[in-house]
Amino acid sequence: MNKKIVQVYCGTGKGKTTAAVGQCIRAASMGYEVIIIQFLKGKDAEEFSFLSKLEPDIKLFRFEKEQEFYKDLPEEVQVEEKENIINGFNFARKVIETGGCDVLVLDEVLGLIELGIITTEDVIKLIQLRDDYVKLVMTGTNLSDELVEYVDIISEIRPIKE
Q: Can you tell me the distance from the alpha carbon of 81 to that of 9, in angstroms, rounded to the nearest whole number?
């Protein structure tokens, strides 16, 4: 992992987070330090609670306090939750700046752009912060055209049959 890599899993299909977690398990098995920061899934994302068993090799962070998905919250609760989400994004910036891990996954970060919580420029600045040994993996439904030039690997996950 001596080359900077930015990888995105996007699309309307299910399995983007699972694919990113697969990258984490692979990296951790090779001795790399891994951090996952999840956004927009609510505090109680039970499907990935098993990751806590993989600590300290894979560390999972969620900054949201509410159990429900961000989109399902009343507007006044969204305001407070937005601050928590921004704290999570700022934590990601600090992890990259300090070299806090070898692989950083920002799960559903692309959704933060869609919701107007952060901007495409915020993500571009984050990508530009990374050091030579950091692999940055991002997930979300839509990858903006402006971000494409900053990404090395793009995997679109879409349903063929439902």
A: 25
61-98 pLDDT tens trace: 988 888 778 888 888 988 999 999 999 999 999 999 99
What span, in angstroms and rounded, lies between the C-alpha atoms of 59 and 61? 7
Whole-model pTM: value is: 0.91
Name the residue among 40, 43, 46 with its Cα closest to residue 108: 40
Q: Where are the beta strands (DSSP E) in the chain?
A: 5-10, 34-38, 58-62, 103-107, 135-140, 153-156
Say if residues 137 and 26 touch (Cβ distance below 8 Å): no
116 in helix, strand or coil? coil
Question: Please, what sign has the CA dihedral across residues 139, 140, 141, 143?
Answer: negative
**112/13 Cα distance (integer angstroms):** 18
Rounded to whole angstroms, how far apart are CA atoms 97 and 134?
10
